[in-house]
Amino acid sequence: MKKLKLEILGLSSSQSQTGSFALVLGEVDGNRRLPIIIGMFEAQAIAIEIEKILPNRPMTHDLFKAFANNFHFTLEEIIISDLKEGVFFAKIVCTDGLKKTEIDARPSDAIAIGLRFDCPIYTYENILAEAGIVLTDEIEEEPEAKPQPPKSKSKKAETAKDDYQHVTVDKLNEMLKESIENEDYEKAAKIRDELSKRN
Q1: How many domains does one find in the chain?
Q2: Residue 119 to residues 5, 26, 146, 184: CA-CA distances in angstroms?
Q3: Of all residues in the chain, what percent carry a pLDDT higher than 70?
C-alpha cells in the first residue's frame, strides 16, 4: 500500500468540544489536509515539542523517549494506519537495530512521541482519499480569508449545528468549501464524515 508523507500544519482549539483540539496534518507535495481531533494533554505535548519548550519535569512522551534511548530503541516512522467509524489509528515503527517492531497507538500520542525523535509521519492513500480535505489553489491564495465570528443563530440551529443527516449533498459540499475557506477544519472534518457515509 502506498505511503504518503504528512507534515504538521497547525493546532487549533475545538469550537464545539471544550478541551479538544484539531491537529491539522498536510500532505507533503499535495493539497490535502487531514484534521484529527485530539485531547488537550496531547495537544500540549505536541505544542511544547514544536516550540522546543523544556518543561521542568519530563512529560509522559519525554519519558517514553528516555526509556527508548536507554534501551537502544529508535523510532523510524509514525503511520496513521487506519480509520474506522471516524476514529483514526496509528502505529509507531521502531527498531533496536536488529528487529523492527510496530506498536499500536493513538495518532496524538504517536505524533507527540515521533516529534521527539524527529521521525517522519505517514499515512496511506486510502485514508487520505476517505478522510482528507482537498484545498484548491484559489483558497490557498486568499490570505485575507480569516475565520469570522459566527453570526447569531437561533436555538434550534445551535442544537442542530452538528446534525448533518438532513442536509442535502449539494449543501454539504457548499458548507465544506466554506469551512475550509474559514480554516474551520473541525467542522470540515464532520461534514466530510457525513459525506463519506453517503458514498
Answers
A1: 1
A2: 11, 16, 32, 28
A3: 81
